[in-house]
């Protein structure tokens, strides 16, 4: 990782996007530890990352709690969920540079060497809370496709997208189009 990458590695938005990516990869009943590790590496974690089944199980529990934040439809709902998670699962706010190896950034886990599950919940709650603070809207959404369980971080302003990906948006548009032309209905594809 270059020095340029280090400045963005711990940004709030990157941390929130990492949270969404981990919630998605951990949605499986039995998440593949290799896939979870790949997401961590993709978002700048220094390798090698080796996760055991118990660590992944703990992260999966944390991801299920975080999913509630992404499911919130209003800023009020998101704030209420985040306040509960911060109260029940995180320690006090502190700054760390991991002994000078990273830019100064905030943590609310109990220790720099906290278990992965605690780290996931704490770092995600912190970033998502800052997004609510900054934007005054929910920090993310669940994909509007009935056949997709993905969550994503929403845009900061402007009209909100409804689907996690272009793939989901296209699939739903095609399905709505077919429905309109076969049944003569008047569903709104938007
Ligand atoms: Zn989707």
From TrEMBL:
<dbReference type="Pfam" id="PF11706">
    <property type="entry name" value="zf-CGNR"/>
</dbReference>
<feature type="domain" description="Zinc finger CGNR">
    <location>
        <begin position="141"/>
        <end position="181"/>
    </location>
</feature>
<dbReference type="InterPro" id="IPR023286">
    <property type="entry name" value="ABATE_dom_sf"/>
</dbReference>
<dbReference type="InterPro" id="IPR021005">
    <property type="entry name" value="Znf_CGNR"/>
</dbReference>
<dbReference type="InterPro" id="IPR010852">
    <property type="entry name" value="ABATE"/>
</dbReference>
<protein>
    <submittedName>
        <fullName>CGNR zinc finger domain-containing protein</fullName>
    </submittedName>
</protein>
């Amino acid at each position: 990782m270059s020095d340029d990458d280090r400045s963005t590695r711990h940004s709030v938005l990157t941390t929130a996007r990492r949270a969404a990516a981990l919630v998605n990869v951990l949605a499986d009943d039995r998440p593949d530890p290799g896939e979870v590790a790949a997401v961590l590496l993709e978002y700048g974690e220094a390798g090698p990352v080796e996760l055991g089944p118990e660590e992944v199980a703990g992260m999966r529990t944390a991801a299920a709690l975080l999913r509630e934040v992404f499911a919130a439809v209003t800023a009020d709902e998101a704030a209420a969920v985040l306040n509960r998670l911060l109260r029940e699962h995180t320690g006090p706010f502190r700054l760390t540079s991991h002994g000078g190896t990273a830019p100064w950034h905030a943590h609310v886990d109990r220790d720099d060497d906290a278990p992965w599950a605690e780290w996931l919940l704490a770092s995600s709650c912190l970033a998502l809370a800052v997004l609510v603070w900054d934007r005054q809207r929910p920090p993310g959404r669940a994909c509007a496709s009935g056949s997709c369980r993905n969550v994503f971080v929403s845009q900061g302003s402007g009209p909100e997208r409804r689907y996690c990906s272009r793939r989901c948006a296209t699939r739903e548009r095609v399905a709505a189009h077919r429905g309109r032309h076969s049944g003569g209905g008047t569903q709104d594809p938007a």
